[in-house]
Amino acid sequence: MFHVSRNGRRPGTTEPQLIQSLEETVRSVLPSTWSVTVERSVVLSAGAARMHEMDALLTLRAPDGTSSVVLVECKNRIVVPRDVAAIARQIDAFTRAAVNKGMRIAGRMLAAPFVSPTTRAQLDGHQMGWFDVTGNLRLRLDDPVVVVDRVGAERNDMRDPSDRLLKSLRGSAAAKVVLELSETALPVGVRELAVRAGVGGGTSARVLGLLDREAVVDRDEDGVVTAVRKRALIDRWVQDYQVLNANEVITALDPRGVNHALDELSLVDIRFALTGSAAARAYLPDSVTPVSPLVLLSLYAEDPVGLMRQLGLKAVDRGANVMVMRPYDDVVHAKSRVVDGLVYAAPAQVVADLMTGPGRSSEEAEQVLAVLASAEPGWE
């Protein structure tokens, strides 16, 4: 059974209300011949005065009599990715106690007011499902077979006015920190990162705080960054960065073809940095065949109109084979590098542009990421 829908309801967010809403939602997506029951606040003894408590046990029973028990941990607050490991350990402990008492546990899930995409990724890594009041739901069981995926909100619009923590990586200052983290030497503290990225100390601290909560970076007790999960870093950045929205874009045509424009770039005297498909090719080993042909040349230019004039490009609304962009910040040029005589945006910038770009660029992004993962620490 597979169910996908969009749901925008906003029921209550206390733990009892979350459990009730979960029960009602699961019942609504299963056939009427199925039964759904909930046991709340279940406590098991593990001996030696050790007790394990689970907020709810959700039992699903199929028409043929087979049933599955799902452990449900509720949080009446927003759960960030950094919380997931501890929640998983808590559920693991209860599962062991339950199995020792002869119970068969078929699934595990988190119920919360909102579960972000990055938190969902962490839960998936721990083989856990999720439910939130915006309509996001994943419930997967083997016996009886249940596969439920419901799509709700991608962003949380239930803000606490007293919560002043950074929620977004939108803007050039955050981008500078992201790009620096993608290549900087570790360990690095808040102040040193600010200096390297060219931002204020407050910006560095807030961005690192967000990335810490999102389980993108590891920090020691002094707040020093000791590890960066670079793939997760870019995944989190592109939740707030879109190449076509963040930059001033001009679509253009080179009548002589995209390769002509690429060849002529070595002759221009305006600062530029290639990105997109052409940059993907520059970062791929010679032994790797690009997943798609080069049909659109994307590049940043300090003076887009002047560069178009030097290349003989014509601005068009349709049929473009060149995309010239005035960058959101000079950091695009500052982080660029030269490959075979041409200037390319940094790999992290290229990947973000491909992940949010048109056509098959997301497939090209995955190809570049695979190469980076095999060559540089942190991209795994």
From TrEMBL:
InterPro entries xrefs: AbiEi_2
Domain of life the protein comes from: Bacteria
Name of the molecule in the record: Transcriptional regulator, AbiEi antitoxin, Type IV TA system
